[in-house]
Amino acid sequence: MRRKLVAGNWKMNGTSADLAQIEALAEAHTGALSEIMIAPPATLLHRAYEHTKSGPITLGAQDCHKCASGAHTGDISADMLLDAGTSYVILGHSERRADHDEHNEDVRAKARAALSAGLRVIICMGEELEEREADNTLDIIGGQLAGSVPDDITGETLVIAYEPIWAIGTGKVPSIEQISEVHDSIRKRLEHRFGPQIARSIRLLYGGSVKPANAAEIFAIQNVDGALVGGASLMAADFSPIIKALDAS
Ligand code: PGA
């Protein structure tokens, strides 16, 4: 009942020439079973929309401001993202939390702004290596979930991405058991907070060094509904096999 979702986070990568990657993906996956989302940098959103509006790819942004408009030089509001053709916004990525000192309450405020503008939100959470080694992962994730996710979500508007910080861009991936344990615990906490019906329809993505070579075994995990992919989403040749692996799962 949950439609699988594979989301590509381009981070601070991509100029006009890279729109060809989006075009190639749109052509190659017209009949995709899974939902495919790409979050290019904000500068490409408008043009990317022209390549994606009639195809299988939806567009996402990588952040938004918590206010609808105003004196916030350099920032972008959820309404502006919607106007650019965006359907999703990624919030609380560990790089935003680290580079911009974003805390759970900031992520929650941004999520509320995005939801009221009509965007879907992908809220990211994940533990540091020291936290995993100290066996604190489930508590850390539980705290991020409680603090970052607003109350006014639905099963359709919220996606959670579990991204262990030590796995992002490193080539290191948690074991299947470790991913499974965290995803099961997220699902349980969502059930407790939102009730079984809403919790069952929220998609839980895994992120952190997802590659064509490891995608199939990650997608076989019961509570994994897709992936948030960084490096391997930049080139259609890498992202395509990941999409196919999700379609086949
Ligand atoms: P990665 O990044 O796939 O390059 O590890 C994932 C992410 O940060 O979303």
Offer a quick outline of the entry.
This protein has eleven helices and eight strands. The protein has helices at 19-28, 45-52, 78-83, 94-99, 104-117, 129-133, 137-148, 176-194, 196-201, 212-219, 236-248, and strands spanning 5-9, 35-39, 57-61, 88-91, 120-125, 158-162, 203-207, 226-229. An eight-stranded parallel beta barrel has the order 1-2-3-4-5-6-7-8, surrounded by seven helices.
Can you describe what's shown?
The chain has eleven helices and eight strands. The radius of gyration is 17 Å and the shape is globular. The model has no long low-confidence stretch (mean pLDDT about 95). It starts with a strand and ends with a helix. About 45% of the residues lie in helices and about 15% in strands. With about 250 residues, it is of the alpha/beta class. The protein has one domain (about 5-249): Aldolase class I (TIM Barrel), CATH 3.20.20. The protein binds 2-phosphoglycolic acid (PGA). 2-phosphoglycolic acid binds next to strand 8.
